[in-house]
Design goal:
The chain is of the alpha/beta class. 56% of the residues lie in helices and 12% in strands. Strands 2-3-1-4-5 form a 5-stranded parallel β-sheet, with helices on both faces.
Length: 217
């Protein structure tokens, strides 16, 4: 647990599963209930994090070693934890993050073959030991996710452009890690956004009656 007055919730999953849409909807839901919260994306959320994000994702012409990719991710995360996550948790808010450490375990540790043990150790250094209270892993077959992105007209970023086989490894990695982590839940991301949102709200309300369950009377 984060050992702070706040609650740290992360949305995870491969490309095209709807993380960003669902994170925004959850934030709107919390707003409607008067729940103090902070919504941010990762990598990003800080000035240095957004600059690193541009290097990692937007500049598709860049070729970089997997180790460089990992170190850049962790550099962005260190700033994210210190400037966004810790202040939100210490203020007693719900910290809602679009991606966090599980992405690095899956994409760089498994997808890039850098090894989970090494990546986890380096991640702990970057986060100072801050971990999510709950990770909601949106799960969708890779081909369905790719069709969603195509229909939406989304242009693949540098990592998304790795191709279907890489994204298949990513999806399988998420399923494996979610099954091993008691603080992670695999969530079916099929169906329309309203259906998926109701699943997420139900899970949060069940797992954390306070602050998510509506007051009676």
């Amino acid at each position: 647990m984060s050992r702070t007055p706040g609650l740290f919730i992360v949305l995870e999953g491969g490309e095209g599963v709807g993380k960003t849409t669902q994170a925004r909807r959850l934030a709107d839901w919390m707003q409607s209930r008067g729940i103090p919260h902070t919504l941010a994306r990762e990598p990003g959320g800080t000035r240095v994090g957004e600059a690193i994000r541009s290097v990692l994702l937007d500049q598709k012409e860049l070729s970089m070693p997997s180790e460089t990719e990992l170190l850049l991710m962790l550099a962005a995360r260190a700033a994210f934890v210190q400037e966004v996550v810790r202040p939100a948790l210490e203020a007693g808010e719900v910290m809602l993050s679009d991606r966090f450490e599980c992405s690095t375990f899956v994409y760089q540790g498994l997808g890039r073959g850098l090894g989970l043990d090494r990546v986890r150790e380096m991640n702990t250094f970057a986060t100072g030991g801050v971990t999510p209270d709950l990770t909601l892993v949106l799960d969708l077959p890779t081909q369905v996710a790719l069709r969603r992105q195509a229909v939406a007209g989304k242009v693949a970023d540098r990592i998304e452009g790795e191709g279907a086989s890489f994204l298949e490894r990513v999806g399988e990695g998420y399923r494996t890690l979610a099954a091993e982590d008691p603080r992670a839940v695999l969530v079916d991301a099929q169906g329309d956004p309203d259906q998926v949102q109701l699943r997420l709200q139900g899970l949060l309300t069940e797992r954390f009656p306070e602050p998510f369950r509506p007051s009676q009377g």
